[in-house]
Structures are given as structure tokens and as C-alpha cells.
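#structure-requests
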Amino acid sequence: MDGLLDGSDELHLEILSLLEGTPSFPGIRFEVAYVACAVALEHALSLRLLVRTQCYTSAIALMRLQFEALTRGMWLLYAASDAQVEALACELTLDAERDARKVPMLSQMLEAVVGKAPDEASRMLLQFKEVNWHGMNSFVHSGIHPLQRHIDGYPQELIENVVRNSNGLNTMTGMLGAILTGDPQISAEFKALQVRYRNVLPDISSPSE
């Protein structure tokens, strides 16, 4: 587990090194989607910190937040209307908060992304949701999964799969961030990154729970 976490941290640092200091392509749509990527990366870091302190229930719940931040970033880039982008990009006020509640829920965002985002990215988002959604929801809502895990314990294989799945979301977030910079060289470097760190990435056919 320590080796997996150390490798995951190294992957995370390389993602940050490629994106930090590189602005998004000019335009509010690109800028707010870039912020969503930053939120997803923060969730991934927090997840690993929780795993290191054996706070497994909270760590697994965070994976859903990481997935939702990535999905929102994809939706903002490829599918959101100009009005929806503005609703999420404006200064935070009570009126702005009310307007932001009108944006689609996650399932609607995914539906909107399909056919507009690159096929591989859409397929990976949908597959991740299909495999992991019910388990992640159970942890977020204190359902049967976390209750029984607190009784029976957390198998190491489960936690390793969670870390690997989070790493997979991290690489997708990095690729989206690279696209948002408009720099093809950064995108090429991210593809090489996925090859170098394949030992800490998931078998996407394996469920996290």
C-alpha cells in the first residue's frame, strides 16, 4: 500500500508540474472548467491523505466528489450553454447561488457530454459511473457499504482499487486540463505520463466496491 500511495503522489506531482503556471485558453468557459479540474485534483490529494490515516470511509466518499468535479469540468467545456457557464462563473452571491442550482445534475451532465466530448473520454466517464456509482453513493449517504465495512473491516484490495480508480480520474483530469490550456505539447506529455505510471492506474473493469 505504501508503494502504491508513494507512486500515486509522484503521479499527482507530475500532473501539477505540467499544469501549474500554465493558464487556460482565454475565455470564461475554459477558465471555469480549468477551476473544476483544480477542484478534482484537490479531492484526489485529500483522498490519499485520508487513506494514509486509515480514514477509509471518508476517503471513498471523496472519490464521488472527485468524479463529479471532473464530470462538471467536461460538461462546462463541451456541453454547457453560455448562460450555464455564466451561472457558475459569476461572483458568489445569494442570487448567484439560486441561479446555480438550476444547472443539470450529474446524470444530465453526462448525457449532455456524450456525443460532444471525445468518444474515449465519454466512454470512460460512463463506464466509471456504471461500475462505481452505487458503492460511492452508499458511502456518501452512510448506507450499507460503510456501515458493514465498519463492522467487518476494509480489505486491502478494496482500498488499493479506490486509490487506483482515483489515480485514473486524476489522469483524465490532467488530460482535460491539458486540453484547456490549448497547448498540444502538454497533451502529448500527459499521454506519456499515463504509460509511465500504468502500475498505479486501474483496471477499469474492476469495481471499487
